[in-house]
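Good morning C.,

I know you're traveling, so I'll keep this short. The sequence:
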Amino acid sequence: MFEIPDTPSRSGWEEDDVRRSTRKPRSSWDMPTPATTSTGAPSDRSISSIWRSEWNKERLRRDRKRRRERSDTVRSMKEEGDLLPEFKNAFERAEWEREQQKLEREWYDNDQAYDEENNPFAQAKEYVEKKEKQWAQKRERPRLTARQQQIKKDNEMWENNRLARSGVVTMADELDDFFDDESDENRVTLLVQNVVPPFLDGRFVFTKQNKPIVPVKDATSDLAVVATKGSNVVRAWREKEERKKAQEKHWELAGSNLGNIMGVKVKPEENDPGAEDHGASYRESQQFATHMENTEAVSDFALEKSIKEQREYLPVFAVRQKMLNVIRDNSVVIIVGETGSGKTTQLAQYLLEDGYGNAGMIGCTQPRRVAAMSVAKRVSEEMGVELGQECGYAIRFEDCTSENTRLKYMTDGILLRECLGDPDLDQYSAIIMDEAHERYDYGRTFPVEIFHARTPMEDYVDAAVKQAVKVHLGGSEGDILIFMPGQEDIEVTCAMIKNQLEELDEAPPLAVLPIYSQLPSDLQAKIFHKAPGGIRKCIVATNIAETSLTVDGILFVIDPGYCKLKVFNPRIGMDALQVFPISQASANQRAGRAGRTGPGQCFRLYTERQFKEEMLVATVPEIQRTNLANVVLLLKSLGVDDLLKFHFMDALHKTTCSILWTLGALDNTGRLTDLGRKMVEFPLDPTVSKMLIVSEGMGCSDEILTIVSMLSVPAIFFRPKGREEDADAKKEKFQVPESDHLSFLNVYLQWRLHKYSMKWCNDNFIHGKAMKKVREVRAQLKDIMEEQKIELISCGTEWDIIRKCICSAYFHNAARLKGIGEYVSVRTGIPCFLHPTSALFGMGYMPDYVVYHELIMTAKEYMQSVTSVDAVWLAELGPMFYSVKEAGSSRIDKRVQSMRDVRSMEEEMRQV
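The tokens, ready to paste straight into the viewer:
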């Protein structure tokens, strides 16, 4: 700061010791103007100054005495370690704390300036930029030079001095000094450090890969740029549908006063069955087996041949006996075969027919749930048994097996969970790890003709829709399979195909069916059914249709060349689901879908040059690009302490173990802790699992369970075009200024209070389907908590406990306030901003420290799901990263303490 140097005449302007005791430095403008006296005239300064009058001296003595008493009281309370007043009993103390929290909350609730775009996945760039410009205009002030600022400051200080000498602002100045002292005493300075345990400091090598691999060959290529931008057609379609919903909602008369006068009746509301959490079983609607019918043949190959003839036609049948002999002589066998050769469906049946099912079950793992369910259904039909009896499947929260089951299809995670209770897997006589590679493709049963685009496509959704309509109107028989990156792309593609066919005169009928992981089981099963009337089917799917998913009759494949992959971003410290170009192996795998039941055609919406130059040869394995903290926890729980000696097909990156140690799942020597053993049992991210487990000890497990369930869905509120103000006003009722997590909790509590009404969701611009999913996940997690004997405890209205519990899990994602609306990561210093959907965005209150659930990578790093926390909580719950600066401590003391911690950890390592 620029300061004007003292003038030689300043000593003549100084007053007595009372003015010297002030905290702030004083310039010449802060002192009284010296009296202009003649050379021979006597000075009257002693009687002209009110500071030297007798009555004012007495008043100043009383003021100084009161300040000393107040300072001594605060100092004594601080030395005793308790800043609270004395209480007669615990009841008075609790009443005082509740009153303080009530006053604090009332102060927060005074600010009602919340107005923002609430869908973080809507990509409303214009809205965010508009809001930021408005904030920038409010913050703009005329810039002054350092000299002008100092002159302005001196003028203000001189004016305050004039007012003080007149006795006008004596009491106000006294109060300001008191509150300034109080704020200085309560202000906490947070020190950032980085403690690394011995097993992570590089002396002990446990992994050959330090950083995750990004699955992009060239980030500047056309495919990569389009993947980053997304589809313009999808964005335009979303805005159109939102406007349409707003218009329909605006003209609804049922339930309004005008509708009652006109006699418009309210339609019966479709609520969830049961008014309580356990009033209905949410798993019945997700039972895939109940919606599966016996599949009917569609292709000529399936119509002309029986099931036995179809099995014998497969290439794997020619080596059946040779393969069984090799399996009989070896405990571990690797089988490599062509796509469509029959490995998935036939190998397990061969083992069952050879007698392996007599000593136990034959287990076969699949990488995806839909694959496990569909393959189990197909095999049960080939065996001629009912699904769930001799042949069944098991996926997350759904077990379709019985005591008679001899052949069991399941996901990889189910088998790993069973390893926890039975490490030797005694109930199985053979285990088949199907699609363990998911990277290479060597051929197909029938020939497939491949067509590449002549020029690069700018919008993959629009190009796929046009190609599908062209194939359908071409007259050739056969069903169509379209690959899309995500759910929204699939829904828009299905809607656009239907709309374009409706606009054509006498267009042949087409059954457009979506398939993705979050689709209800009854709709997923439709892709395996024969279309009514024998019409053509058009299946729009994610990459779950690439492997182990055979739909009879698919002869045409449309491949845009994109997919969604989960990638660990070391900058933000978490996984992110992003769109990337597929690899050449995935492209060949997709083309192979057209040759499973007959000769087919594959239309690639990218050029041959892009296929060769812009795509990786093989997909980067998930173990090299994601945070496999759950896998490491499982391996540790199974006794694999040395990860370097474990035979990974691909090296595990170092970041995974670092996160687990930070959360307390691993100790300083890399071994699993008691907390880590509990975290293994939850099918959640380790951070969320810790928050759920720790909540029991803090007395808020019931509320944390609800918050975790709310975090499982991408968006709760929607904001239709044309009704933005109405949506904002409704959302504002649920906001808790201190926390987005508490806002989620408030929404669920209000929904439960209204008996899980779907009408209530629509009236408050809340996604009803998302809330149904939240309720389902909550019931599932509650069952796991009961199995782990974690008691559900409610903290009532003591929501500060919830904020501290959230801080215990997300302290590594902490940010501190840097400017108006701008935060920086405490650990890395990366700038991060409040997202417009946050309850803290636009509020007058800006907390000094916050923790966030995740970062959204758009034009800026926006924090999603933010909660304000205290600096003391960060130091208490994350001592490996933060510490509080204590009065009187020096750098030497801090250095000595850190050396003690390091020596203690090294001693633990030597003992191990």
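Safe travels,
E.
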